[in-house]
Amino acid sequence: MQERKIRVLIAKPGLDGHDRGAKVIARALRDAGMEVIYTGLRQTPEMIAEAALQEDVDVVGLSILSGAHNALVPSIIKKLHAIGLVNVKVFVGGIIPQTDIPSLLEKGVYAVYGPGTNTQAVVEDIHQAVHH
Amino acid sequence: MPSINPQAIREGDRLALSKALTAVENGLPESQEIQAALFPFTGQAHLLGITGSPGSGKSTLVNQLAKFFRCQRTYGKTPKIAIVAVDPTSPFSGGALLGDRIRMQDLSGDKGIFIRSMASRGALGGLAHTTAAFATVLDGAGFDMIIIETVGAGQAEVEIASLAHTTIVVETPGMGDDIQAIKAGILEIGDILVVNKADQPGAENAARALQVMLEMGRGGGWERYPAGKHMRSGPHELKNPNPDPSLPTWQPPIQLVTATDGTGVEELASYVVDHKTFLKETGLWQIKESHRLEKDLEVLIQDLLLREWLDRLEDGQYEVVLKEVVTRKRTPIDAAQSLIRKIN
After folding, report:
1. Chain center to CA of B287
2. What would the CATH number be for the domain defined by B43-285?
3. Is B105 in contact with A5 (Cβ distance < 8 A)?
4. What is this model's ipTM?
5. If exposure means fewest CB atoms within 10 Å of the residue's CB, which of B4, B93, B205, B327 is most exposed?
6. A18-76: per-residue pLDDT in tens?
7. Mutate to test the interface with A, among B107, B115, B117 (most CBs of A within 10 A)
8. What is the CA angle B236-B238-B241, rounded to 5?
């Protein structure tokens, strides 16, 4: 019997085209023994929710640098819930102003990370989120 | 976790299907029940394998093929397509980066397509241990075509040939000379050979090298070889190396494709349909199915025997014998025999 691996979808919603951060996180989670599905640039909320469903992930990690997080993130969470993925934990990383963080957390985001975040901290938070 | 309803899967519930695949992948207790409920409905889907070196364009080609078939009425209706894309698991961390979906963005938003990425989890044949079981679940769920993309394969990852009805081997220009083409292994299993990146220089040469290989011997069609019995079936362990002369031969076509812009995809798709028709008309479809199920059975027997043996082994026995091997007091084969005898 195999142990259950943590499956993570890393997605870049919206129109910014820089995915270095997403790749760094994807690599760090891979090295922490997780199965990471990276879907590439310019995803719509529908595409992300559908990919999360097909891949049956435990966690969705969103990388956003464009400033559109207040519009995109709630929309993605709504879509996830609408298709029955109520237990999937949503993480957000990128350029997110401090003042926007409380409202994102309130709308169901598990954690928000800015530049310079230690990847080990993200790994630990994911373990925490999935196992509780 | 709530139990998964096989009936919901039959009715097209994508979440139930996804949960079922997870259960199968992790060997959860309910996976047997799900497979048992779906098994009677299987045997309908066309299993199409895509293999080739890392970076040869397999995912991009899958994207194009699926897109093409979704616009066709090849099966009398627009086929529902499932895609299983396998990528390697890190031997060090046990983690994996599954990136095949990146190339399949054209397919998102199409409810007639279901894509699932899979980590190889230590299996070496180019697939994961549970890929065949995935095919069973997806077949039972009513998909008309199941496209299975292997990990980037080198020369020996030939397991796909015993799972898929039709195997496409993807080559690219500049992969080596005609000696590479006559080596044993992956090229032998192709029912259809593709030279991808045909817009690059050297594509014609690559196609010619493959042509020469085919003219010198055979490629593909290993189902014509009499099945070896008793743990010996499969394309790589044939008891009788001569094909059964009473069975018809499929001559593998070679197709130049540029997967990034779709050139050659229509022709490739027609070969896929031709091959299916050939298998059905000649009865080789049934032979292939029985080979595949026999192989599944063998793998399961090996698995169960191993598990049973592990269960019956007393604590510490294994470690004691292992130490004797490490200190060179026993040969590995002697140690293995003694461990197996201990529980009998």
Report:
1. 17
2. 3.40.50.300
3. no
4. 0.92
5. B327
6. 889 899 999 999 999 999 999 989 999 999 999 999 999 999 999 999 999 999 999 99
7. B117
8. 115
